[in-house]
Design a protein that fits this description.
Rossmann fold, 325 residues, DNA polymerase, domain 1, globular, eight-stranded mixed beta sheet, alpha/beta
Length: 325
């Protein structure tokens, strides 16, 4: 893989076609920046394939792409979109969770020049009312990203202990009134089980006030979704495994949308880039004694105003990248 310093490269303006065209299954976020990071790569692992937006662009650049997704419907949409490169042997799709690539059918020995994680919910998943990711009126409380998830959001909210629910809302939503909101949810579910987005919205308004709106709903619904899909714990388990699947000079690029995700990625990249990770007061180094690679993004890369104008969901996206040496 050709080594390229990200900071020295020109990033082209955001494109909306062909892979980001209106009506596509999912508009890929930070696409020009991802393409720049993978310049010179031949073999890419897209761990969150979605509708195949990033994969389509990388295939157009002559790379081979293996796509993994835990959502069967997303995988089917991507395979339909990328049928030609799949027939040509340039693309393959695997059903599974990126936190368990071997379970998805990927051989332990297979390495990649570039690995991409685009965390969060795809545009199509969010817009499909039946998936229950949205707080729109009448939407079911589901939020499961794949068939590997047992409990939907309704079951979680109807069964979780009040103390655990408070901790969840505090940790994943940064909600200062987490204890009050947890108490309100438990009180309401005792009268009638939570079933739709309206039930959770009404509980939020009862605690945060009638003026609470989309920002508060989005933050709390996101927290519930993270808990339903075990997203932070899964990311933490996956990070060292993904690092070890990189070739020498290979790049791991991760797009996150939540401060907890971004913190995990930032800390992992920092530790892997350090020569010594022993405790500060330890007299003698007993760790590996050399860095495993280098962080390519000292600060996260954010979407441009032009991209946000086209795709408002790019607003909270943060891209970090690391290279193995």
């Amino acid at each position: 893989m050709t080594r390229v310093r990200y900071s020295s490269l020109h990033v082209s303006p955001v494109r909306t076609a062909p892979s980001g065209r209106p009506g596509a299954y999912h508009v890929p976020v930070l696409l020009p920046e991802v393409e720049t990071l993978f310049v010179g790569a031949a073999n890419i692992l897209d761990c969150t394939l979605g509708g195949g937006g990033h994969a389509a662009a990388l295939l157009d650049r002559g790379m081979r792409v293996t796509g993994v997704d835990r959502d069967p419907r997303a995988l089917a949409a991507a395979r339909e979109r990328l049928a030609d490169p799949e027939r040509a042997g340039q693309f393959r799709a695997l059903l599974g969770n990126y936190a368990d690539l071997e379970g998805a059918g990927l051989a332990y020995s297979e390495l990649f020049d570039g690995i991409l994680l685009d965390l969060g919910v795809s545009s199509h998943q969010f817009d499909d009312l039946t998936r229950g990711f949205t707080f729109r009126e009448g939407a079911p409380l589901d939020m499961r990203m794949g068939t590997d998830v047992d409990l939907g959001a309704d079951e979680l909210l109807n069964t979780i202990d009040e103390v655990d629910l408070s901790a969840l809302l505090r940790a994943y939503a940064d909600e200062p009134r987490a204890a009050r909101l947890a108490r309100e949810i438990v009180r309401r579910r005792d009268r009638r089980p939570f079933a739709t987005a309206d039930d959770l919205v009404d509980a939020i308004r009862a605690v945060l006030g009638p003026r609470s709106g989309a920002p508060e709903f989005a933050r709390i619904f996101q927290a519930v979704r993270i808990a339903v899909n075990d997203e932070l714990a899964g990311l933490e388990r996956a990070l060292p495994k993904l690092r070890d699947r990189l070739t020498s000079g290979g790049v791991l690029a991760i797009i996150s949308y939540h401060s907890g995700e971004d913190r995990l990625v930032k800390n992992a990249f920092r530790d892997w880039s350090a020569a010594c990770i022993c405790p500060p007061k330890q007299m003698m180094c007993t760790c590996r004694g050399e860095p495993l690679g280098e962080t390519l993004t000292k600060k996260p890369i954010n979407a441009t105003d032009a991209e946000i104008d086209v795709n408002s969901r790019a607003r909270s996206a943060r891209l970090r990248a690391w290279r193995r040496v």
